[in-house]
Design goal:
With 548 residues, the protein is of the alpha/beta class. Helix content is 28%, strand content 21%. A 15-stranded parallel sheet has the order 1-2-3-4-5-6-8-10-12-13-14-15-16-17-20. It has a three-stranded parallel sheet with strand order 7-9-11. It has a two-stranded antiparallel sheet with strand order 18-19.
């Protein structure tokens, strides 16, 4: 058998090879008597340095401020675990200003793997080879263990804090508290931490997110007295509640920002109305993914100071806004809301996202009988407008004589189906004489275009429009028709930028950026530019035309 090259063998009968004479001669000048002390001295000095370095705690030599900078870069669970190092480290976590308890940090990777397998197994991706009963039992066991561990950690943290209270050292540096947990029986420990943070620590930002367990249970419920025992003295300014029942909030006089998300279906409409009427100091309110199955939420709050209102994905119900006198920014995102913009005299920013049609099918068609004035009209002070109207067919009229935006400066029309007549934004251009920036995003639909609008020749000129950007431009007949229309009526137009690839990057609900990508048009680019150039521009300044 052949021996591998990396294996060394030694024969018993083989005589040892004599040393090379050159190597022996090279060692002759070295005196062993001098070599041994040098080696011994060098090794002993290394051992002394090693003993010194092992005995010296350089990390504890740092100041408390530097150590807190280190702890702030760790998650809360790891930062609290450093208290077991020494007495000094035990008091350092009390100086943290942000505490973030998340059950997702405790869940093992195998839990998420089970969730993915269950999602695929329910769709029979693996056939019938997965025992769903055993899989569900494992998922529930992981959730129970994680919640018991989290509850024990919070309980130990609070017990240690009570001990420090007797010594005169209070946990008073916390300004932000975030909690993420499963709504189980163990979540009752959460209420103790919240009350401690709001009453004693004077926390300013509080986020409570109760995740639904694998088998949906009830939402998280607070004690009868609410979040804390003395809300009038609290400094709570920003509050987010997700998957919770709404506690009494009318006595939190410092509360200015409130987010309610994934509230249970059993939440009465009076709880939503109370937020508007009994919390007049609120300035920002965000309702997200709340099922309004208990009736119509009618809002009449003449004393409210709400300036920013976001209604996002609130299904199975209706909200009627009658009076919010201080409202400046409104976002209605796929939510059934009835309102009159004339009731908001200070409204400046508006975002409306509406979709009509459940499926991409003409079996259930929506006739174009809605007037845009119902959605966008009635507020003369709007300066920034974001519109996302989608559906298989265009569901609004091609004319709206009462529509008027005398102060509109920036306009974004996003997610326009390519099957629509993309020239419909002409309605908004005619209603906005001070419009300066117009951005349009066209979403690709496989269906052919339909319901072309028959426009009358324009009888007006636009003196303020300076920039037109279209993303999703494919050079179709109606798209080129709309570009030529804008060029023909705009006397101050400076830039026309047409891009095939790109998207809208939202920066909040009322601001955005147009992100574009280059595309090689080929010979088609010459045809498109020729069709646009044949229409003489009306602008007194040269127009920069970009086609990418």
């Amino acid at each position: 058998m052949r021996t591998p090259p990396f294996c060394r063998t030694r024969s018993r009968n083989r005589n040892p090879r004599p040393p090379d004479e050159g190597a022996t001669a090279a060692l002759r000048p070295v005196h062993r008597s001098r070599l041994r002390p040098a080696i011994a001295t060098k090794s002993s000095s290394r051992r002394r340095q090693l003993r010194v370095s092992c005995g010296e705690d350089r990390l504890s030599a740092l100041t408390d401020d530097l150590l807190l900078l280190v702890l702030r870069r760790l998650d809360t669970r790891t930062a609290l675990a450093t208290a077991a190092l020494s007495k000094r480290w035990a008091g350092l976590p009390r100086g943290l200003d942000v505490l973030d308890f998340r059950v997702s940090d405790i869940l093992p990777a195998r839990y998420h793997q089970c969730i993915r397998v269950h999602g695929k197994a329910t769709g029979h991706t693996y056939g019938f080879n997965v025992n769903l009963k055993v899989l569900c039992a494992n998922i529930e066991r992981y959730e129970r263990r994680a919640m018991r561990t989290m509850a024990a950690s919070i309980n130990n943290f609070l017990d240690a804090d009570d001990a420090h209270d007797h010594a005169g050292e209070r946990l008073c540096n916390v300004r932000v508290l975030r909690l993420e947990f499963f709504a189980t029986q163990c979540s009752s420990r959460i209420n103790r931490l919240i009350a401690k943070a709001v009453d004693a620590c004077r926390v300013e930002d509080l986020e409570v997110s109760a995740k639904g367990t694998f088998r949906p249970q009830d939402a998280h419920c607070f004690p009868h007295h609410g979040l804390c025992k003395d809300p009038q003295k609290s400094r709570l300014r920003n509050l987010k509640l997700a998957g919770c029942y709404v506690p009494p909030l009318q006595d939190f006089h410092a509360l200015t920002s409130l987010v309610l998300q994934d509230l249970p279906e059993s939440t009465p409409t009076a709880a939503y109305v109370t937020v508007f009427t009994l919390c007049p100091q609120l300035q920002a309110l965000h309702l997200k993914s709340c099922n309004l199955k208990q009736g119509v939420v009618a809002v009449h709050a003449p004393r409210s100071e709400i300036k920013q209102l976001i209604l996002e994905h609130c299904w199975f119900g209706q909200i009627k806004l009658y009076s919010l006198p201080m409202l400046e920014s409104l976002a209605v995102l796929e939510t059934d809301v009835t309102y009159k913009l004339s009731s908001f005299p200070y409204l400046r920013h508006l975002n409306v996202t509406t979709r009509c049609g459940v499926t991409k099918s003409r079996i259930c068609r929506f006739r174009n009988y809605y007037d845009l004035n119902l959605y966008l009209g009635g507020s003369p002070g709007i300066t920034d407008l974001v519109v996302r109207f989608t559906g298989y067919d265009r569901w609004f009229k091609s004319s709206s004589p009462k529509l008027l935006f005398p102060k509109l400066r920036r306009l974004l029309i996003a997610d326009v189906p390519s099957s629509w007549d993309v020239s419909w934004p002409r309605l908004l251009i005619e209603a906005a004489p001070c419009l300066e920036i117009l951005h349009i995003h066209i979403a690709h639909w496989e269906e052919e275009s339909c319901n072309d609008i028959s426009w009358q020749p324009p009888e007006f000129f636009h003196s303020q429009l300076k920039e037109l950007v279209i993303v999703g431009f494919e050079g179709t007949e109606r798209q080129i028709f709309f570009v030529n229309f804008v060029i023909k009526i705009s006397t101050s137009l400076q830039l026309v930028s047409l891009h095939k690839n790109g998207h809208v990057l939202d920066r909040g609900h009322w601001n955005w950026d147009m992100v574009t990508q280059q595309y090689q048009w080929g010979n088609e680019k010459v045809r498109i530019l020729k069709q646009i150039a044949d229409n003489g521009p009306c602008s007194v300044t040269p127009i920069q035309l970009v086609l990418e």
